[in-house]
Amino acid sequence: MDVFYSYTYGTAAWLGLQAAPLILSPTLIVALLSPTVRDPTPLEVYFSRSVGFALITLAILTLLLSGSVPLSSRLSEEVAPTTTDPNDPKAPYALPTLGITATHHSLTAFYAYAMWNETGVTVFSLGMLGSSALAAVGLWCVLFASSDGRISRKTGADKRTSGWPFKNREADKRKGRKQT
To answer: Are 168 and 162 in contact (CB under 8 A)?
Structure first.
């Protein structure tokens, strides 16, 4: 579960880091992303700050819905940590929040890569690296840190494997079948 908490706090920090320049200095963002240096229009300032506030809201919701921050004092008295089990009363939305934020990071990384490839602006490559790292950790949490994971924690094998068209030697070993 430590990776899950690291992922949620990392996601909140990354979104906050992205939101800060959008809110504090829309002129800086326009200067970094525009081929010519100019003052931002009022519409660009509005959209920049609106997106910044939305990113902060997403960061706060990620922390609250994942169970990283308890929502009531009754739940904070319990000693057991929050899990990604859908039946966990401390964080019933932990797994959906994990999936949504991992998808967000994946889409953001893909978009930043496409823009970096097209324009060559270094800021896009930095955004791509940060979002790619969080997307990879989010995917790892979906596969290994959730109860719905498809990968066995003991053997590392995919639980959905079958014997067709190739033999599944691990399953045969466990079931005591003769190998051919």
So the answer is: yes
Q: Kindly give, in sequence order, each residue whose CB lies less than 8 Å from that of residue 62, ignoring residues fewer than 6 positions away.
A: 8, 11, 12, 15, 97, 101
What string of DSSP letters covers 20-72? Answer: HHHHH-HHHHHHHHSSS--PPPHHHHHHHHHHHHHHHHHHHHHHHHTTSS-SS
Q: Name which of 108, 5, 10 is nearest 66 in CA terms.
A: 5
Return the SS3 of 1.
Answer: coil
What three-state secondary structure class fits 114?
A: helix
Task: For residue range 61-93, list pLDDT tens digits in order.
Answer: 999 888 887 766 554 455 556 665 555 656 678
- Tell me which of 88-92, 101-105, 147-151 is least confident: 147-151
| Residue 95 CA from chain centroid, whole number | 11
Contact (CB, 8 A) for 40 and 27: yes
What residues does each domain of the chain span? 2-149
Specify the pTM: 0.72
CA distance 16 to 3: 19
